[in-house]
């Protein structure tokens, strides 16, 4: 299979840039194509899901990775159709530059045809995947059912929730900020989100203790509860930054 992870990252960047430039025709063209290809959509959502996947038992994680390797290596289902679709997207996105994603790169290696020349590369990719799967992710479960884990522009679009991430009221600086957030590797995003959440909760707690206004205290407590329930995601990281700026 073509390098799906690379295509996924490039596609997200392209959509983001098109939105920032208000190129509605380009956005519509890309999204219409994606929505009509079920195989691509399913693979995209799998790549999203595995970012948060945790398997405590290392032996089970190894078996899971071997299962993925077998699946990627077999010409089953609509594999040829997906390859053709990825190839068409690859040519359209050839000029897009993205940040590397080690997890996606490891998955992409598994999808390569088995050759004597890439055995070592595949072994290293499997090792990285096992390490990723057996590393516990510090993700809080959100009670807000309208939010999707690891929200990105494309994922929101596939969920018919485009306006949750972007609205016509965003300024150019806000659009630029969102573009930067979308380029952050997910491992770094988790760390940054947790640090920002902790900082905001501490700041709000101080304001509550210093406030003599009952209404203000109730509002601050509501903010504190909301921040505590936020799981690390790109959209939530944007929301936390907006909240932090409002408190400063």
Description:
By secondary structure, the chain is mainly alpha-helical. The protein has two domains: 4-133, no CATH class; 165-247, no CATH class. Helices cover 70% and strands 0% of the residues. It has 13 helices and no strands. Helix 11 (186-210) runs antiparallel to helix 12. The chain is globular, with a radius of gyration of 20 Å. The relative contact order is 0.13. The model is unreliable at 139-151 and 157-165 (pLDDT under 50).
Tags for this entry?
248 residues; 0% strand
Query: In total, how many beta strands?
Result: 0
- Could you tell me the mean pLDDT? 77
The largest pleated sheet is described as: none
Distance between the termini: 48 Å
Number of domains: 2
Query: What portion of residues belong to β-strands?
Result: under 5%
Shape: globular
Helix content: over 70%
Order of helix and strand elements from N to C terminus: HHHHHHHHHHHHH
Task: Indicate the radius of gyration in whole angstroms.
Answer: 20 Å
Structural class: mainly alpha
């Amino acid at each position: 299979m073509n390098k799906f992870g690379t295509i996924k990252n490039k596609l997200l960047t392209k959509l983001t840039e098109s939105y920032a430039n208000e190129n509605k025709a380009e956005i519509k063209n890309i999204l219409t194509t994606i929505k009509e290809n079920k195989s691509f959509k399913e693979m995209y959502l799998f790549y999203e899901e595995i970012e948060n996947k945790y398997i405590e038992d290392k032996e089970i994680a190894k078996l899971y990775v071997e299962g993925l390797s077998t699946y990627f290596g077999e010409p089953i289902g609509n594999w040829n159709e997906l390859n053709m679709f990825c190839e068409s997207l690859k040519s359209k996105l050839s000029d897009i530059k993205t940040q590397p994603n080690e997890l996606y790169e490891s998955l992409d290696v598994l999808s390569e045809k088995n050759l004597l020349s890439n055995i070592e590369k595949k072994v290293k990719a499997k090792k990285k995947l096992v390490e990723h799967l057996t590393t516990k992710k510090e993700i809080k479960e959100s009670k807000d059912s309208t939010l999707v884990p690891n929200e990105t522009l494309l994922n929101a679009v596939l969920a018919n929730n485009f306006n949750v991430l972007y609205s016509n009221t965003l300024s150019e600086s806000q659009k630029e900020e969102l573009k930067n957030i979308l380029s952050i590797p997910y491992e770094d995003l988790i760390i940054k989100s947790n640090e920002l959440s902790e900082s905001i909760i501490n700041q709000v707690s101080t304001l509550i203790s210093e406030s003599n206004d009952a209404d203000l205290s109730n509002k601050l407590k509501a903010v504190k509860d909301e921040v505590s329930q936020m799981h690390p995601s790109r959209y939530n990281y944007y929301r936390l930054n907006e909240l932090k700026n409002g408190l400063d």
